[in-house]
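User: Predict the structure for this protein chain, please.
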Amino acid sequence: MATDKAGVIAEYRESYRALRALLDRLSEAQMSKPFMDGWSVREVLGHILGWHQQLALGLERMAQGQRPAPEGVDWSDVQGWNDRFAREAAGRAVPDLLGDLERETERFLRALEALPDDRFGEGKTVNRIAAGAGFEHFREHARDIEAALAAGKL
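Assistant: Here is the predicted structure, written as structure tokens:
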């Protein structure tokens, strides 16, 4: 896993491209079929999108010298946030979710690029955000989708 700015950004881009290539192979029917604890790919997309929206904001705040989470926002209730993101995605059209995800990944990249090099490094907050909401998150759910495809669940 890369730890410097250029490496983190490259790893983020590559892992998103791989996830997007996988998603582009799926039909809307496949994306709408529950396969993972009641979630379909649609809810997985909403979950990824929601965390991207929250943590792109966190990166933008860091670039302004602020703490990532706005006052009064607590990201530690991961399951609560996940449930909210999945609910918000449940009734949305897949092409709309994909379009929003594309925009949010660009926003996330711009936020990473705006941060100075010294904010990147092993164990640093930026790296944890880039991995947790970005490249490791993309890979985690790509593996989930690939396993569901291989098992005939999608």
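DSSP finds six helices and no strands in the chain.
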